[in-house]
Amino acid sequence: QVQLVESGGGLVQAGGSLRLSCAASGRTFSNYAMGWFRQAPGKEREFVAAITWNGDTTSDAGSVKGRFTISRDNAKNTVYLQMNSLKPEDTAVYYCARDSLFATLKAYQAAYWGKGTLVNVSS
User: Fold this and answer.
1) Residue 5 pLDDT exceeds 60
2) Is the pLDDT of residue 31 over 80?
3) Is the pLDDT confidence value at 28 over 70?
4) 10, 24, 64, 82: which could join 77 in a potential S-S bond, CB 3.0 to 4.6 Å?
5) Which of 9-18, 23-32, 107-116 has the lowest mean pLDDT?
6) How far apart are the C-alpha atoms of 37 and 116, rounded to whole Å?
7) What are residue 88's DSSP bridge partners?
8) Read out DSSP for the chain?
9) What angle do CA 58, 62, 64 make, to 5 degrees?
10) How confident is residue 10, by pLDDT bands cut at 50, 70 and 90?
11) How far apart are CA 113 and CA 122, in angstroms?
């Protein structure tokens, strides 16, 4: 059993930065991928970025490329999302997810999900 707890969300002005954290606890996996998703009010959840156990990253969210960076600290079982140049349209609940396979994670079928942290970007 794995538990994921997000933190770091809050209210920030447009152009500002936030760093989200997702701490994983419970059973340890030798190989796993972790990622971030977000869901804005009235919209479907969307993929933001993911990182493999060995540090490879991927993202297909064109709206955040160049502004958001995902990273991980394996020693702390923690994944981060550095968010720079925030825009009001980035306002959403951000969710952390974890799975042994990236393909499963990307398909919104991750084995484990956090409860989310709210990011509210004001104009």
Assistant:
1) yes
2) no
3) no
4) 24
5) 23-32
6) 9
7) none
8) -EEEEEE--EEEETT--EEEEEEEEES--SS-EEEEEEE-TTS--EEEEEE-TTS-EE---TTTTTTEEEEEEGGGTEEEEEE-S--GGG-EEEEEEEES-HHHHHTT--SEE---EEEEEE-
9) 80
10) very high
11) 27
pLDDT tier at 55 (50, 70, 90 boundaries)? confident
Residue type, 62: G
pLDDT at 30 over 60: no
Q: Locate 36 and state its tokens.
A: 């971030």
Provide the sign of the torsion angle of the four alpha carbons 98, 64, 62, 92, taken in this order.
positive
Structure tokens that stand for 116 in this block: 């989310």
pLDDT value at residue 29: 58
Distance CA 59, CA 52 (A): 12
CA nearest to 18, candidates 108, 115, 122: 122
Of 82, 102, 86, 91, which is closest to residue 41 (Cα–Cα)? 91
